[in-house]
Amino acid sequence: MIAEKQRLQDTDWKNWGPYVSNRQWGNVREDYSSNGDAWNFANHNNAESYAYRWGEEGIAGISDAKQLFCFALSFWNKKDKIVKERFFGLSNPQGNHGEDIKEIFYYLDNTPTHSYMKMLYKYPINAFPYDDIRAENARRSKKRT
Predict the structure, then answer these.
(1) What's the CA gap between 79 and 116, in Å, rounded?
(2) Which of 70, 76, 93 is nearest to 127 (CA)?
(3) Of 34, 47, 79, 145, which one has the fewest beta carbons inside 10 Å?
(4) Tens-digit pLDDT profile for the chain (145 aa)?
(5) Which residues 6+ apart lie within 8 Å of 103 measured at CB?
(6) Reduced to 3 states, what is the DSSP secondary structure of residue 101?
(7) Helix H or strand E encompassing 7
(8) Residue 131 CA to its chain's centroid (Å)
(9) Using alpha carbons only, what angle is made at residue 11 by residues 57 and 70, rounded to the nearest 5 degrees?
(10) Residue ranges of the alpha helices (H) in 17-142?
(11) Phi then psi for 17, rounded to 5 degrees?
(12) CA angle at residue 58 from 52 to 61, to 5 degrees?
């Protein structure tokens, strides 16, 4: 703990940290649509085509304080059609909770300077059920049954 207290006094340790969002696409901060409909303009499938102006996203991402340098993990289980670079979620019209990430991950531990960070991400061995999740959420209603 003494080493961490010393790091807290050093302002260089505040230049890096977990400043990368879990989800940046499909939100009103990044609305580049011509009609103001951010929810339908971007979805998970086309999110990789955009450069974000107000932030970045990634799985277990870290960056400098100004997000000029961003680093995040990518995964591939050899069964998915894409390399997993961002969490899968639904846009607001696709689901009944809006901006809901449909994956399992936990932030387990972190020091105040982020000199140590621990995260657990449950990436499936089998193909990720993108279509099944979309279909099930489209079937559901916002009304309680």
Answers:
(1) 32
(2) 76
(3) 145
(4) 799 999 999 999 989 999 888 877 666 666 778 888 777 777 777 777 767 767 788 899 999 998 889 999 999 999 998 898 888 888 777 776 666 788 899 999 999 999 999 999 999 899 999 889 888 888 887 776 6
(5) 87, 88, 89, 121, 122, 123
(6) strand
(7) helix 2-9
(8) 19
(9) 20
(10) 38-41, 130-139
(11) 175, -175
(12) 115
pLDDT digits (tens, 9 = 90+) for 38-73: 777 777 777 777 677 677 888 999 999 988 899 999
Asked if 43 and 91 touch (Cβ cutoff 8 Å), the reply is yes
CA-based max dimension of the chain: 55
User: Burial code of 65-93, b = ≥16 C-beta within 10 A, e = fewer?
Assistant: eeeeebeeeeeeeeeeeeebbbbbbbbbe
Q: Residue ranges of the alpha helices (H) in 19-144? A: 38-41, 130-139
